[in-house]
């Protein structure tokens, strides 16, 4: 399946009128900086202008390529696969109008032609794929930053929205695949593939239902053993499950069975879209952590909120060793609290944060550190960001710089250095909780 | 207490060197467009330059004013109150160094002087106050937009962070008060005041602990009867409660007692900072709603996620009447689902959204509507925003336009028209849940 996400050559089939699906995909591939060969194909030929470049449109595919991306009317797809099948390894079928609208026959025909020719199919009725480390953006969805998350989405629209929101959350992606009707390749294949993909640190999976539970369970176990697999299951409630059935045509099945499968396989189930992002963020940074958290803050209130949430989630507020407390006492102003949560008070600067992080990081009773920063008085938030970056610390550090605009500089600096920000104390505490699930 | 939030004249005491607390407060008051008299006072006199204006600093307060804002060293505060007490109605004491650092005597002295002179005190050790409808920004915290939320915060730093984050969330504020050590006025006084303030639609309260439980309970009941009171309680867990005690010096008390008080009084307790914002947003728009929700979406997946969350929270997925379904069938393309959640599919445009909202709004089985929009294909999100704005609908509408940058135009347009966006399906469903708690 490697050729799908690291192709050396791609052909795109469809209309290249400005705004048409194939045009948008071609534009994304070109603008995304794909360095392999790109061949637009349309029986009418002609040329297409994208970003100032004029590119010839081929009337037929003459050369062999790794991947064909197909956005032509559904009924023409099976004949096209027959025609070009010998020249391609795989096809991403964007076109809708198959089993999802009751046209199961056409989908069967597509699959038969593909099998005949030894072509693997993603889709039909999907939003396409990204192989981000190959700069390959084979989808009309918004391009994303390079990173460690592989996003597998049954719903194209959910996937597209998640990519755009992921950009805002500072997530880096290794790959994206929307698999639509899953005529051939499905969630189980992708789980196994990304489990072995060196650029993928964590896998996020959005599913409504799966067809082959046994195969899914095996793939999930395989993947979750190798790296964190974060799952958002839609169709958990009675009405939601009914809606998912009518929406995807797949049997959603009992949620209890899914839930048990997630737990048994060691996958991490999240309940909300936002949690999917937060879990992805934390697993892009760290593989795991123990339960004993030290909280370092420059404001009491947010420190207490983080403490409440951490304890509610079953984390432990680490009991600092006597040595740690003595060392903290030696340089912190007397108004500071040296009990966990450690309150550095409002005028905490670079030095106070950095030294505290380093002292706490050495404590054997501490597994991970949560650093909270409300806008410091008289000190730019960048200074505190630098303290986090510069501190010698081998343990996972989660940061919660809060107050939007007021800490923007600090947050941007952190993100440039691969430290992702969690905007509230509670979301930061939840992030630490997920890390403990991999311990 | 009206004079605190709608003052006609204000004096500020402290250092007016650039960057000093009093300077920052004076700047905020001036830049915020306060139209009453503003008198900076410092025994050294001189002048201060702010935003191109040179303003004389008075050596003493000669005139009477409504409010004095005091940011001078703690030990000088009681004598100052004695000196100016006859000329002021109330004082906001920003200065720290009282009971929170063990200096209970000084705080007692402050209170005695104030009582002698009939002066009401907010603070000490607080971040100040805003009376937004009087354009009065008597705090060094970031200024906010005018609206319906009164934020009462025991923690100044929490309050400041919440104001900045509230700006990003599109919340409008009527007032803000950080009451610090609560030597005189406390949470109960503010609850009662904002319950009767015409510009306040909802009250948000951040507390760690209260001193007089009976008085708090009465004030909470009074306020919650008049308008939504949203509470974020910090210090709920064992470790959190201990940390809150050492932080505020107040007894946090058993969380179970607080919880019971919140429930009995009809206040709405939220568990996370983000929920505080979301509840504030929804109550700025609507007073209440029934349980039966209709979900309208242009993408199946997010519709299912909203359905799951709504049902989990005890809302009902409204069963649409036969008449509604027939009317929807009459104009919707056949691929659309006319069962709730109603799926308008990817190419849904202005007309399809608007008509659907209007038809569903008339259904007697529907109490509220959740409108979901992922980035529409070939249609700017502004068009869908307009459909929501233009649709004739008497029932609460909650919107979830998702995908950050891609729906920014639509979200901005909605917010200009007072319709606040909830960024995920789950957060939108939670917002609807809070509305039902006031039904």
Describe this structure as you would to a colleague.
The structure is a homodimer. With about 450 residues, chain A is α/β, with parallel strands linked by helices. Helix content of chain A is about 40%, strand content about 20%. The first copy, chain A, contains 16 helices and 19 strands. In chain A, the strands form four sheets. Chain A has a seven-stranded mixed sheet, sandwiched between helices. In chain A, strands 2-1-5-6-7 form a five-stranded parallel sheet, sandwiched between helices. In chain A, strands 15, 16, 17, 18 and 19 form a five-stranded parallel sheet that branches. The radius of gyration of chain A is 25 Å and the shape is elongated. Chains A and B meet through helix 5, helix 8, helix 11 and helix 16 of A and helix 5, helix 8, helix 11 and helix 16 of B. Chains A, B: It catalyses: acetate + ATP + CoA = acetyl-CoA + ADP + phosphate. Chains A, B: Its EC number is 6.2.1.13. Chains A, B: It holds the Pfam family CoA_binding_2. Chains A, B: This is acetate--CoA ligase (ADP-forming).
Report the CATH architecture of the largest domain in chain A.
3-Layer(aba) Sandwich
- Residue fraction in strands of chain A: 15-25%
Biggest sheet character of chain A: 7 strands, mixed
As a percent range, the share of helical residues of chain A equals: 25-40%
CATH class placement of the largest domain in chain A: Alpha Beta
**In the CATH hierarchy, what is the superfamily of the largest domain in chain A?**
Succinyl-CoA synthetase domains
Query: How many structurally independent domains of chain A?
Result: 3
Largest interface: pair, residues per side: A-B, 69 and 69 residues
Distance between the termini of chain A: 30 Å
* Oligomeric composition of the shown chains: homodimer
Mean pLDDT of chain A: 95
Order of the strands making up the biggest sheet of chain A:
9-8-11-10-12-13-14
Protein name (chains A, B): acetate--CoA ligase (ADP-forming)
Keywords (chains A, B): ATP-binding, Ligase, Nucleotide-binding
Catalytic activity (chains A, B): acetate + ATP + CoA = acetyl-CoA + ADP + phosphate
Organism (chains A, B): Palaeococcus pacificus DY20341
């Amino acid at each position: 399946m490697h050729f799908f996400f690291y192709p050396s050559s791609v052909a795109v089939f469809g209309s290249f009128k400005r705004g048409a699906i194939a045009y948008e995909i071609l534009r994304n591939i070109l603008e995304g900086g794909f360095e392999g060969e790109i061949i637009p194909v349309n029986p009418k030929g002609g040329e297409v202008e994208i970003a100032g470049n004029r590119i010839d449109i081929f009337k037929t595919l003459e050369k062999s390529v790794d991947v064909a991306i197909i956005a032509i009317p559904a009924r023409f797809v099976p004949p096209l696969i027959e025609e070009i099948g010998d020249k391609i390894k795989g096809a991403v079928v964007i076109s809708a109008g198959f089993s999802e609208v009751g046209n199961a026959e056409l989908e069967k025909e597509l699959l038969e032609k593909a099998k005949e020719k030894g072509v693997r199919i993603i889709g039909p009725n999907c939003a396409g794929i990204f192989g981000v480390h190959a700069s390959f953006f084979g989808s009309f969805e918004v391009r994303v930053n390079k990173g460690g998350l592989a996003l597998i989405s049954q719903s194209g629209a959910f996937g597209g929205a998640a990519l755009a929101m992921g950009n805002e959350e500072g997530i880096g992606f290794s790959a994206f695949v929307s698999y639509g009707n899953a005529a051939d390749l499905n969630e189980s294949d992708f789980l196994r593939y990304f489990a072995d993909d060196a650029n993928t640190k964590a896998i996020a999976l959005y599913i409504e239902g799966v067809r082959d539970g046994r195969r899914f369970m095996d793939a999930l176990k395989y993947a979750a053993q190798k790296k964190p697999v974060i799952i958002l299951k839609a169709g958990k409630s009675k009405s939601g499950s009914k809606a998912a059935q009518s929406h995807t045509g797949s049997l959603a099945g009992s949620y209890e069975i899914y839930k048990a499968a997630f737990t048994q396989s060691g996958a991490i189930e999240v309940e909300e879209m936002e949690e999917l992002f937060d879990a992805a963020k934390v697993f892009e940074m760290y593989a795991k952590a123990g339960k004993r958290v030290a909280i370092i803050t420059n404001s009491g209130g947010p420190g207490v909120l983080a403490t409440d949430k951490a304890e509610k989630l079953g984390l432990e507020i680490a009991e600092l060793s006597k040595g740690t407390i003595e060392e903290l006492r030696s340089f912190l102003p007397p108004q500071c609290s040296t009990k966990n949560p450690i309150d550095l008070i409002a005028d905490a600067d670079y030095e106070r944060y950095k030294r505290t992080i380093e002292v706490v990081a050495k404590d054997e009773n501490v597994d991970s550190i949560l650093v909270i920063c409300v806008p410091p008085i008289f000190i730019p938030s960048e200074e505190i960001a630098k303290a986090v970056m510069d501190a010698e610390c081998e343990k996972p550090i989660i940061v919660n710089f809060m107050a939007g605009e007021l800490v923007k500089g600090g947050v941007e600096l952190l993100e440039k250095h691969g430290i992702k920000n969690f905007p509230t104390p509670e979301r930061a505490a939840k992030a630490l909780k997920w890390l403990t699930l991999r311990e």
